[in-house]
Amino acid sequence: MASNIKGLGIVEKFLSTIGKETELKLGRVLIAGGNAIQKISRENVSVNQGLLRQSIISTKNFAPDELEVEVGPTAFYGPFIEFGTRPHFPPVEPLERWAQLHGMAGAGFAIAKKISREGTKPKPYLIPAFNKVAPKVFKKLNQVIQGID
User: Which domain does 54 fall in, by range?
Assistant: First the structure.
């Protein structure tokens, strides 16, 4: 799962017509935006052992006519935390480890049974960060494009 700001065809066409200096400025704005989303996401995410928090990264892909920054977790369970899950029967072992860390040794199976009935509630961390940062990034991108920066 990643939140990204990726150009549509018209934006990609525009990028092929701008100067290198403007392209570098746009790239810096995107990198700063990605870093801000990463930082806020890490602050927002609920923490058990910190693995999900540590896995939230920002990566850039600057190819010809394409500027892209992606932010998201590398931990496979990141989307399950962000969006929640439908009812399903999860593996008991990780839940048992979690229960032990929280003073509830032996509760793993009961927790799995509850998840099998109710699923898990979403605990958004990435989308709120994107929603907070994106307007500022779009404003700055527009300023760069208009030569106001």
Answer: 3-79+123-145
pLDDT tens per residue, range 122-138? 999 999 999 999 999 99
Query: Looking at the structure, do residues 114 and 134 belong to the same domain, yes or no?
Result: no
Rounded to whole angstroms, the Cα distance separating 22 from 90 reads 49
Task: Please give the tally of structural domains in the chain.
Answer: 2
Instruction: Please give the C-alpha separations between residue 57 and each of 4, 6, 14, 78, 138, in angstroms, as whole numbers.
Output: 12, 17, 28, 12, 21
Neighbours of 30 (CB within 10 A): 21
pTM as predicted: 0.82
| Helices 20-44, 126-145: crossing angle, 10 deg rounding | 160
Same domain, 131 and 62: yes
- Where b means 16+ CB within 10 Å and e means fewer, 49-61 reads eeebbebbebeee
Instruction: Give the per-residue SS3 of 91-108.
Output: CHHHHHHHHHHCCCCCCH
Neighbours of 21 (CB within 10 A): 9
Q: What CA–CA distance (Å, rounded) separates 149 from 133? A: 18
- Residues 6 or more apart whose Cβ sits within 8 Å of residue 147: 22
C-alpha 130/C-alpha 138 separation (Å) is 11
